[in-house]
Amino acid sequence: MNQQLSVLTRRTEPLSPSKRSAHPNSDYLPLLTISPRNLFPSSTPILPTSTSSSPSPPSTPSNSSQSVEPRPSLQSAQAQIAASETFSSSNVLSPTTISASNQHIYRVLPLSPSATLGQSLIHTSHDLILPPLSAFLSSTYPAFTTVDCTWQYVFDRVVNPSPLWSSYAPGSLGDYPDVKSLWQAWDEGTYVKDIGRKPALRLIDARWGNLESQETHRRKFPSWRPRNDDKARKIWSNFYFFIHRIDSRMKSGHSSDEAVVYFEGLRGGKSLSQLHKSLQTKKRKRRMTDDESS
Fold this sequence. Notes:
Largest sheet: 3 strands, antiparallel
Shape: globular
Helix content: 40-55%
Strand content: 5-15%
Radius of gyration: 51 Å
Number of strands: 7
Order of helices and strands: HHHHEEEEEHHHEEHHHH
């Protein structure tokens, strides 16, 4: 029995770790670590063993083409709000007061809004000369924008038309150098140099002029012209004298330009006051001739 153990010991001695380290030049090869992949064909999948008892969460595939947009910061959000408010406020028009060289004070609505605070207003020939606040029966003017800035918008908000005369009354005949400028005051509106433009008097007279009542079919006194004022009555009568005659020629088939040219030819080198007097004389002579023939 002892003899068999001795033989077994000699045969297994090279396999002992202590013996192998003691004989580095030994002809015996160390034991190889055999991988499970070497024991199975490559086509057979090897399932990995899990060292944890809890299941691992499913992995989310990464998509490098999709980028996550960062949330805007508070500063950028505030900047966007400020930009939108600036854009909306840039459409607002604000009336201003202008004092002319003759000490007359005008209330004007500039049609060109200022881009920034402190920037000087840009005046144009189409800026609206507004009526007094008393026409609106308010302490402030209506809200004006680049859209709501027409004469119709202004007149739709007039509650008391009587103050319109102080702002838009026609001038005396001596204030107009020719027939064309007088017609422009009626048809387009008078332009005040370096100030703005008044409304066409035809627009005012169409709303508050000598209109016929639909109930009584009688003419009503113009609500925008002063009552019991001889000076105002004479100014309007002389002014409308030419408007009526130009309008009569237009109704007979002539254009407004042709009618203006016709009366300019009659005027020659005379003033409008002299032309007005000469046309009234012809009218009186014609009446006298008609009376004599009858």
